[in-house]
Structure formats: structure tokens, C-alpha cells
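Z., the sequence and structure:
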Amino acid sequence: MNRRTGLKAICLWLVFWGLVIPATGQGVRKPVWAGQFYESDPSRLSRQLEVWLDAAELKPVSGRVVGLIVPHAGYVYSARVAAVGYRLVRNLEVETVVIIGPSHQLAFEGCSIYLRGGFETPLGVAEVDETLARELARYSGFGYIPEAHDREHSVEVQVPFIQKVFPRARIVPVVMGNQTEMTIQALAGALVRATKGKKVLVVASTDLSHFLGRAQANERDRKTIELIQNLDLKSLSRQVERHENIMCGGGPVLTLLHYARRMGQARVAALAYSDSAAAGGPGDRVVGYLSAAVYLETAQTGLDLTPEEKRELLALARLAIETYLATGKIPAYQPTSPRLETKAGAFVTLKQNHQLRGCIGFAEPLFPLWETVAQAAVLAATEDPRFPPLRKSELPGLQIEISVLGPLQPVSDVSEIKVGRHGLVIKEGQRSGLLLPQVATELGWDRQTFLREVCRKAGLPENAWKNSKGLFKFEAIVFQE
């Protein structure tokens, strides 16, 4: 693909639709492609997104997801692929989504960052995170170019998905012009600095090869996906710089990959692939679509915790509860072992006279292990809805148990589940339930009972596990005072 073709290509649907009236000015950008790339009726759009998300296969990864690679064609062609990526992050705690899309309409250097206002869609207005947008502009040196956003679809089509998956999140829309190494590195470095300490997801918006025969397109896309998964940034950069027909959003993808690499041990998981012919488009002019997760690999489970590290975590859990009951605050803490800085999921279980008094935790590795334990301990003591808040008078007889969780692994056959070794998670739509490995052992459950009970925990029919795509097992290290 030469440069001129790359700037004009608008991913299949623009072959079928004419020009539209551009949005003007900064503030609230009106939807441009509603009714063309995606449904304009709010109820129908909302229902379509729900159907695609619920039908998408959930494919967990063993780490913290920091970004997605998703397509930006008309929903009839690419929404099912995009939904697989958005389904994965549906339950993450995300405050801001940075959307990086390539410019299809305007040739310019650098990036245009939408600094204030919001993006309107039929689902409402997604507000811009003005603070993060300003920081990203300051660190990168890029500003706001109105024409870059006026008719650009690569960012707009992501917004309804984001509104559905993260209804309270804000956005930072970024349109990338000429996809040079200098622009990519500047934006990636700015992202690292601007997002530090924030709950941010970066979305790289791209389609893969354009308008090739289906067999040729699928083979070229396979090679591109392999380069992305292997984090072969040199080869990808070389092909993007040469304007080869591999993907229109190579610059946004490279930005996300460089950003992730600077954040930690980056990995990429390809989640779904398809092409426009699969949705009824012509077979001789195919566009490829990829959904992939970019994540930071974490330690498997912390299963090699030393006795000293276990004692430190138990002492921290007690300290956190005592301090919170006295002051209403979680104490500042600096762990003695660097391994306790590793992000990991964990649950804290409280008992009085060997009877449950509270149990809350985090299944995903959202925080360093020491922080996960401190927060879970306080929540178990004060926020478990099954029990009244813990009183100071109960502290002397309080028993504390900690479960450090390993990664969630999809269950393909229930015979894989080993009672006493595996915990269970089931996720269906907005409902989810988790049972720790020791629960089945303590209550004398067999595998079938364990499966039924995790469904009940999620508020699902007790046999929902039989047809569920969201059933997972995990291992845990369990220790107590």
C-alpha cells in the first residue's frame, strides 16, 4: 500500500458510504458515523453491544492487561472481533481509556490529542479526561488539530464499546498522523509518564491488510499477528515505515507495544481474528480484523513465598485491620521483601472461634501483593455484607487466613478440576462468583457440588456451568496465623 492509498483507505465501509458532514470545533464532538459504521438508535445499539459482548469467548491472560488492539471497521464486519477484546477487560477497574487511531483523512506530522469536552454517541457523551489529556500533550509535545478529528472514524467507533464496558470511564482520543518512529516513541514515552499511578487502558485502533484476495489477506495477516505476538518491533516498524499493506494503524499498535515494554514484562495474546468476507463482504477485496490483549506478565502465584514472607503478610493484615479500626485509614507500609511488590490477587478470610467472620479479596492481580492483602483485610473486617463490621473487642480472638491466587485458567473439561487443589470462578455477563480451593475441602463437597455452589455464588442457575464459556479454575497458596 503506498502512502496516498494508506491515507485514503477507510476500511471497507467507506467504499460503500459517501462523505459526511464534518464535526467542527473542540468541546463535545458530535457523532459522525452513527447510522453508517454503527447503529444510530440508542436502544438498538445498546442491545447489539450486549449481544456481541455476551457471545464473545472470554480468554483470560496471566497478567495485568494494559492495552487492547481492536478493529475499527463498520460493526457489521468487525464488532464480533472487537467484542472479544472488550469482553476480556469488562471487569477491570479502568478510570480512563486512551484511544489511539490512525488518521485516514488528513496527512500531518505528530498526533492530535482531544484536550477537552467529550465524544457524543447515541449512548450519550463520553467525557474527556482533561487532566490526563493535558499531561499527555505536555510530555509528548503534541497538541490539538481540529481537522484530524472532524471525520476520523478509527477513534469514534471505539467509543460505544467503551461506554458499554466502562460506563463511568473517561477517554483521551488521540489521532496519529504520519506514523514515524519519532512520533511513535514520543507518544509511547508520554503515555508512560502521564499514566503512572492511574487506572488506564490504552486502545490501539487498527484493521489489518486491506483489499487483498482472501487467501492472500489471511496469510499476510497471519504473519503480521505473529510479529505482534513475538513483539518483533523492528520488523513491524520497518514494514510500517515502508507503508506495506499489513495494517492501517501500525503506528498506534507500535505505540502500545513500546508503552507496554517500558511498563514491565510485556506479552501479547491474540484473542480473535476474522475478515470482512466472513461477514458477507466480497472475497476479492478483504479487510482483516484482529483483537489482541497486551498485558504485563506477573509471577504465576507467589507459590514460592518463604515462611518469613508469609508471616510478614499475616502481620500486615492484622496491622491494617487494627489501624483502620483505630483511625479509619490503611497504614502506609514498605515491605521488607521485594517479592511482595509483585502484583497478585489474594483473599483474606477472618474467623472467630473457627467460624467465618468475613472474607473479601481481589481475583485479579491489580495491586502489589502487600497492598492487596492490606486492602482485602480491611474490607473483610468492615465491608463483608454478610456480617456487621468488626469491633475492636473482637481483635484478640481474630484468626486470619490469606489465600494468594494464581492466574485464572479456562476449564475445557470439568474433569480437570481437582477438589482441594483448584478454586473456581464463573463469569456470565455482569454476574460472577468465586470460591476458594479450601471451601470445597472444608465443607466436604465433591466436584459436582463445587460447580453448583460457584454458580449459586454468582446468582446463576446451579447448572449454568454446563454451558458456560466463563468457567475458570485457579490454584492458591493458603496460610494462616
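The longest helix spans residues 307-327. Confidence is low (pLDDT under 50) at residues 1-25.

Let me know what you think.
H.
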